[in-house]
């Protein structure tokens, strides 16, 4: 944290034990004051009860990046800054503005949209937003223990943090499992730093996720070193087969 | 008595008609816009209007999926579309994006708001949040267990809809964009290519762990053994997945669940029928099935490990077109021959088996074997069998 602070990073986001998925997490009591919490599990009834039990401990934190809407429902009148972070749902300005009107401080824009879509969202949002500019995207969250199940079925010793690869589509994913399920990440870093000319007044934070790089490497990237791909900035997704085939040149 | 509903998929008008005929109380389908089966046939606006009128004439209900996750460009026609659905008296829309819910409230629409499973509702606080937005019903995430269902029902009083049968996502629904990354097709707008049914190389620290391909494919859901318990804990609607499935699949599954529910309600359900139902359902699907999350966390036995382990189903032999004077006119679907023992099933009679002794072509020439799908043939059967009944291999 000290090294990051030296280059101007002002806020830190901490996954919380038993309430976060996909990242190394922390005991709530060990997380520094004035931090943001990343609480990204989809809560079942047990998780909801667990979350309710830690509410008295939340006052010393700045805010929560939340996936489960129960957090908004429970804390909308609190002093905590609530950042809408529902995976893959933060894709249009209308829904974002609903949550901002409902008391959210901000929203973390999803990463599977284009540069034009991001700019339109920033332009039409009623409050500054959080813009994730570097990291590996979590692209799937299963409640199943997919790695353990496969290992057990194939008599493979207990391993975790595995890669899966599919050659034809050049697909490279990373799987991280815990007792609450399996998170799948795209293995390539995306890097939007300096690729969009954004009005800083429309941004609450630029967010950087580091999975496995050294602090110095991340600092170099923040300072402009070329690393990673363009993600979906210039790649509009399709969803109807005809449109998909037309783009590939098939008829 | 609380609402108790069997809800069927309708990927087309034909499937809708069979779903209702075989016992569905309600259907769900999508229009040409905003649904998550973007590559299903789906319904034009005229077809939606006709479908709703038809359903209501039978005293049945129609729900329309408006459950994509919206991008900016999708917002343009949404208001017009919702007003249209309301104007043709659709009974409910299913939504996952908050913008749809917000508009439903702002426009003061009379059709009900149901929260789609894409919203992944698993706890009572979220359900209460949606209730305040005007939701009448929540379709729970397929990951909901018995405890979750009881808690949500008790604390919100919302109508509860649960999937009872059909395919499962590997992911919590809505929390997957693997298709976007592997194929550039947007899973949350109906473009999912089911990456979770692919196989992959399995590596750790740059080394292949095993030559066996990695797979994460779940078996299908099958709640036959728990329907009675689910009714008791307050589930109101039992949803069958499968808008892309055949009329044979939809008719078979709907008929089995119809009879299970009816037998529960009149206290005639026994283990023998449950076993029979499981046998039929295991046969009609091309994948194995299990109860998945209701009673436990799915483990090693609730998945496949060889990718798409799906056998082609050729059980459906023919569709009954007419029946008169001991001759049943059928449209052939798969090969059969004289001497085969088959079953006839339909919504208004008990399934029975029959050994074929005569087959005739359309000119009443006797033939030994039916080998041309879609050909109209006659079979000698000493029974009147209603139109749109089905003939299958004896199970």
CATH fold type of the largest domain in chain B: TIM Barrel
CATH topology of the largest domain in chain A: TIM Barrel
Q: What portion of residues of chain B is helical?
A: 25-40%
N-to-C span of chain A: 54 Å
Number of domains of chain A: 2
Question: Quick summary of this structure?
Answer:
The complex is a heterodimer of chains A (251) and B (395). Chain A is 26% helix and 22% strand.
Task: Report on this structure.
The complex is a heterodimer of chains A (251) and B (395). Chain A is α/β, with parallel strands linked by helices and 251 residues long. Chain A contains eight helices and twelve strands. Chain A has helices at residues 2-6, 45-54, 69-75, 93-101, 115-124, 146-153, 215-222, 241-248; strands at residues 13-15, 36-39, 63-66, 81-84, 106-107, 129-135, 138-142, 162-166, 171-178, 181-186, 190-191, 203-208. In chain A, the strands form three sheets. Chain A has a five-stranded parallel sheet with strand order 1-2-3-4-5, with helices on one face. In chain A, strands 7-10-9-8 form a four-stranded antiparallel sheet, covered by helices on one side. In chain A, 43% of the residues are buried. The model of chain A is unreliable at 247-251 (pLDDT under 50). With 395 residues, chain B is of the alpha/beta class. Chain B has two domains: 5-174 and 218-302, Aldolase class I (TIM Barrel, Alpha-Beta Barrel), CATH 3.20.20; 316-393, Elongation Factor Tu (Ef-tu), domain 3. Helices cover 27% and strands 27% of the residues of chain B. Chain B contains ten helices and 22 strands. Chain B has helices at residues 13-21, 45-57, 78-87, 98-106, 124-132, 146-156, 178-183, 227-232, 247-265, 271-284, and strands spanning 5-9, 26-29, 61-66, 92-95, 112-115, 135-139, 159-166, 199-204, 207-215, 220-222, 237-240, 289-290, 316-324, 327-332, 336-337, 341-346, 349-355, 359-360, 366-367, 369-370, 376-380, 390-393. In chain B, strands 1-2-3-4-5-6-7-11 form an eight-stranded parallel beta barrel, surrounded by six helices. Classes of the chains: A alpha/beta (251), B alpha/beta (395). Chains A and B meet through helix 2, helix 3, helix 4, helix 5 and strand 7 of A and helix 4, helix 5, helix 6, helix 7 and strand 8 of B. Strand 8 (162-166) of chain A pairs antiparallel with strand 8 of chain B, so a sheet runs across the interface.
